[in-house]
Input
Amino acid sequence: MHIAGEPDALKGASPVRTGGRRKRACTTGTSPAAYRCYYLAEAAGLEVWLVNAKDVKHLPGRGKSDREDSVWLCKLNERGMLRRSFVPPEGIRDLRSLTRTRSRLAQDQVRHQNRVEKILEDALLKISVVISDLFGVSGRRFLDALVAGERSPRALAALGDTRLKATRQQLAGALTGRFREVHAFEIATHLRLIDAINDEIARLDARIEQQLTSIPGAAPACGSCGLIGGGHSTGCASDGTPVLGLVERLDEVTGVGVRNAQVLIAELGTDMSVFPTPGHAAAWARLTSRTLQSGTTARPGRTGKGNPYLRAALGQSVMAAARTDTRLGEQYRRIARRRGKQKAIVAVSRVICEIACILISDPAARFTDLGADYYNRGDSRRRTRSRIRELERLNPGMKVTLTPVQQAA
Output
């Protein structure tokens, strides 16, 4: 059964046989109507394909109706001209909804924090100049004291932690301003909202961990009895042996962390058979450049807009890895020096995405860092050519020539 992306498409579609005795439903578009049709057809036990609308565009001069659209989709599918879009199973979709809700709540939290910063600037207080985190331990003490009515800069500066790099005089200078009651009322409102969001995020984290235990391939399973989590059978050879789950194995990747590992599972799923290779998954996430060719001229194009939640998690992982003395950190620094930070973020994001796909597809795989000296272990001749090109690039118009030591003497 082929379904056009209209609300009443299920009524107007005609059932046909495609690919043997098994029925298949195909719907186009990502509108709410298309998803409703997808969920209804999936609940009916059909094999449903969600297809990009640009792949099934009508030819000029053809009529436009629900029935003709259905016939056109049937013809395209019979000729093998449709490519199936990636739609994860229901368990992964539920996990994806939870992680995306957490991401949106975190964005709301940052908005409230930015508004607090703006209110402080309006009150001529520049606390963030002398402390790195306005909402850390010391910063929160300053804010709570200001809301409670404390206005003395010296008394406020005394609340700072002893580990702060700023001196008491610097803190007192930053806390000297024109802070009024209206500012205290506004900041108190935003602080209550921030605390409420923190509580909701904590609840979401607990619910996400609970959801992960019900997803096949995400929770650790015993190699002997196959049970997920605890409750191993009596006499099980693996009973008591620690088994790492998928989140823990992804957390071993430099810069990823537990939260980003959960996002990777939610966005990529646990069934890597939908992607022929890890490179296909990176291309689906729009982390690979397109090839634009005209005649004999070929040049790389823009990567395009991919999954924003997946790319955000990968970007955070890259920025965390960039501060480490590891292979991924060195790769980021090498590319950033030559081509800029944005291209370095995309390049290392692609590497982390492909590593995640390998770890998801192989339960026995573990991440091992290759070390920051990975790029210096290669052929000495290649490294010599690289250094020569770098010297010639720094000295335009000059040619570098290597001379043997004996000949130079």
Notes: The radius of gyration is 28 Å. The first helix runs from residue 9 to 12.
